Amino acid sequence: MALTKVYDAATVFRNLNGIINVYKPAGMKVKHVRNAILSNICKGLNDLEQRKPRKLPNDMRLLGTGAATDTVLHKIAANTDLSDHILASGPRYLPGDIRCAAVSTLGYHTSGVLLFGLNKGLQQSSLIQRNRPVRVYHVTARMGTATENHLPDSRVTVRANHRHLTPERISGLAASMQASHQRKMFELCGVDLQTQAAYELACKGLLRPADNSQPVVYGIKLIHFERPHFTLELHTINESEQYMAALIHDMAIELRTVAHCSQIRCIRHAHFDVSESLLRHGWHLPGIMKNLRLQQSVLEAHPQLLDQQRVDLHAAQ
């Protein structure tokens, strides 16, 4: 279908519905990202062609008393409600006119994929959130130093030697932790991992938590090692920035050293990839409208994002 340029603000506003995928920078709160996007949308809408002021009924025309005044007002405001003029009422579109909500939040130090629902897209965002899709992170850790909150902006509390660590030891621990988390999922469902019931439960699909309070890790893999840093790829649900930072700290303790998170980056949320995220210089009305169409195609290609049969971890208890 061929696309046409639209210069009417009301037409653009009526089509401002759906899911957008933006790239959240590290060191920026989600609410500040939301406010910046809404402000840029309103600025773009107010720069387009606006509707004309309302017309007054015939018995409410504004007429002057003098000859000169009567001529000017009759030409400008005889049938126009001046209180509805843009110079009197202010901008037509304000951030409060647009409904916007994040599908799931990211921490202050976390960057990467952040999904928002706009206007009628709020229903889609709530469905995605209720289905709890897996998110993929690249978490970079710095070995040798530990901080108070396991994040880079905190005070260093411990220093330790890390020369004995190798990629093989980190990969082995990551595989062991992944197996432990997978075993815990079936235990929460009340079945033994070596039984037929566990096999049938696994055939139904991915085991998901029944609420938002329980973090679940589905995969941990070492993807990069360059002393003193290493990067893990995490596949998780219901995670938080502090949970992943504590996970890095616990792994370092098991490896007889210390470490803290130096970078956390979300590269995928379900089928929404970081390669399609809208960078900060693209947070304007044309970029947002283009991103809305792009994410709509993702939802059409993967309808299970909005209607998914889940296997809850507490379903069999």
From TrEMBL:
<dbReference type="InterPro" id="IPR039048">
    <property type="entry name" value="Trub2"/>
</dbReference>
<feature type="domain" description="Pseudouridine synthase II N-terminal">
    <location>
        <begin position="105"/>
        <end position="236"/>
    </location>
</feature>
<dbReference type="InterPro" id="IPR020103">
    <property type="entry name" value="PsdUridine_synth_cat_dom_sf"/>
</dbReference>
<dbReference type="InterPro" id="IPR002501">
    <property type="entry name" value="PsdUridine_synth_N"/>
</dbReference>
<dbReference type="Pfam" id="PF01509">
    <property type="entry name" value="TruB_N"/>
</dbReference>
<protein>
    <submittedName>
        <fullName>Probable tRNA pseudouridine synthase 2</fullName>
    </submittedName>
</protein>
<comment type="similarity">
    <text>Belongs to the pseudouridine synthase TruB family.</text>
</comment>
